């Protein structure tokens, strides 16, 4: 009995560790009879505790009227970044964070740009990239800042 209990506890701890390591339920596929587009839609829970400046910027940009939905468009990222950062000078010690992101078809000209710490911006960009690796261009991603 004691051996079964210890095995059960180990299994629960292993599952909890896997859940924590993977960041919990960060991506949720949205399904339904009438999806918003022909592409799939997912919801991404953005971790404000890990990337507070980026999270604050996303919240502010959405409150100012920018879309919380990002349609993945990796091929358009370079052109979008060029358009969104035109006229926004660099500042020593800061990155220029864009919302919507350059990798989103909603990004580019008219994006909300804010100066934030490079560590926060680059960490957030890497985190988002890893979360969305498995999704094809055209996938709609709704960002929810936790």
Give descriptors for this structure.
single chain, alpha+beta, 4-stranded mixed sheet, two-stranded antiparallel sheet, 38% helix, 146 residues
Structure description:
Mean pLDDT is 83; it is low at 10-25 and 29-38. This protein is α+β, with helices and mostly antiparallel strands and 146 residues long. The chain has one domain (39-145). The protein is globular, with a radius of gyration of 18 Å. The protein contains four helices and six strands. Helices cover 38% and strands 20% of the residues. The protein has a four-stranded mixed beta sheet. The chain has a two-stranded antiparallel sheet with strand order 4-5. The longest helix is centred in the N-terminal third of the chain and has 20 residues, at 2-21.
Topology:
Layout: H1 2-21, E1 27-30, E2 41-46, H2 52-63, E3 69-71, H3 77-85, E4 95-99, E5 112-116, H4 118-132, E6 140-145
Parallel strand pairs: 2-6
Antiparallel strand pairs: 1-2, 3-6, 4-5
Q: What are the secondary-structure elements, in order, as H or E?
A: HEEHEHEEHE
In the predicted model, the low-confidence regions spanning at least 5 consecutive residues are 10-25, 29-38
Counting helices, strands and paired strands, the structural category is alpha+beta
How many DSSP-defined strands? 6
Distance between the termini: 41 Å
